[in-house]
Amino acid sequence: MVVLRSASVRLPALLALTTLPPVLEAVLATRFGLRSAVGLAPQASAPTPFAIFHDLRWVSVYHDSWPRFAAELIATVVARGVWIAAVVLVAWPSEAARRPAVGRALLTGVTGTAALTVFLLPWAALSVALSATSLSWLFVADVGVVFVLVLVVQRAGLVPDWWRGLPPPAAALWAVVSFLVLTVASVLLSAAPGPLPIVLAAGAGAVNGWLWRRLLAAVLAARIRLVRVPVAPLVAVGLLLGIAPAGFLSRAAVQEAEQPPPPLAAGPGGRPPQALIFVGGYDSVGDGTPTGGTPQTADSIPFEMFSYAGLDPSGRPLPYRARQTQQSLEVSARLLDAQVAELHTRTGKPVALLAESEGTLVARTYLATRPHPAVVAVILLSPVPNAAAATFPPSGAGHGWGLAAGAQLRAILAVARWSSGLPISTDEPLIHSLLGNPQRYRDQMFCPVPGVRMMAFVTLSDALADRPGNPLGVPFVLVVAVHGDDFDRSRVQRELVAFLHGERPRTTGAWLYRLLRAAAVAWQAPPLRLSLIPPGPAGYETPRCHG
Prior knowledge:
Elements: H1 7-31, H2 50-61, H3 66-91, H4 102-133, H5 136-153, H6 169-191, H7 196-221, H8 231-241, H9 243-257, E1 264-265, E2 275-279, E3 300-301, E4 304-305, H10 329-347, E5 351-356, H11 358-369, E6 375-381, H12 403-420, H13 429-435, H14 438-441, E7 453-459, H15 460-463, E8 476-479, H16 490-500, H17 510-520
């Protein structure tokens, strides 16, 4: 094509190809109420494999049947492959070897996109699990794997033999630069007010054009080593096989969850005026003693462990096992309601809830579906910040949003279950109750509840599972820790006890939390529009936040 030989034509064509997709996505995200996903827009024209991973996350969320999933996947592979071929043709360096023919470029673009779709699709499904459950360790696992893949497949769609040999260092470097640029762009777009994200999306698209030229030049100039070794397929398969040993990490996490909570040290003011219930997290256990096995000292504050098994005839918590934490949130909320009423009657005191991890979802469900006059304070420890952003139907369903993603997640968990021996599943009643009523949980964790004093202790890792737009409506303390590793810290306990004594808490670290979640949204799945999901079971009105 003669027109491609003119730099004055090729540069505007490249900018058009890399600028229009992010602008269009930013416009649509704003128009259809998906403002929290606007940070994804720059990836619509990013270098490979980022643009393909971007496409697969949208497809993984927005399909509701197998035929629709197949049609969307095929259309995405073809459209993205053609787009990559067009970018390669107009961005081809003038000093490089002869530009490929259009037909050859199209074949390379489409086949490279198809291969990357196979490599990346399981990890797009894992990003759906992150959006559904809001568990930060899923973010770390998913982004870590994708980042490793990025380093070895950045030539896909650009040259025919991209899958052979070690990745060129210069190309890998530009892939890392692209990752950083896309993360920063997500922060800027997520924080921008009004229509400004659309303008910033155009700027990000222009930067993508520059990145494409640098990456293509690095790939074409590189001397490939170990050209007979299929490095990219081997790495992709190795990462999938890595799911099996990951099951052993699940067992270690369960062993940690089974440990009783540490004693709560009393401050200078002594014991607070409330009776306390500690609501443990997923896979926790209780031995039926009031403190769940926590060693009490003379200067510690007594608390009663919430039992996921309920109360005995005398009103005392029954022992429970880890499996019982997998019951539906509605069942757990009903049991918490009974335990709150019994403790309030027995002690004559108002009740404060100390809820950790899954326990924060139980507490939220209780506050949203039960009258709670006896509860005067709730403390959220390592809360699950913003669950139910994406969904997938139960096993055996023939339709439902995220159907194929759910099937892939079941396969992944089957391998992890085999290697760990743990009964982990996407079809637990807990998961169904969470995803069956997203209106109750999305953007609700930090909402204030009338008549109840609340505060939250949130870890740095929790920010990676949240999304922009989730209002921080309660006093908020950011803790430099990982999820679930905050309650035994002396600073947290001091501020917690002061709060129970009536001291007004001071929000700290909110700016850093907002920054981290705005950066993380670039690598999450987009949220499913609530208008597409039928309302869940009726209950008391869910508290609403107004940011």
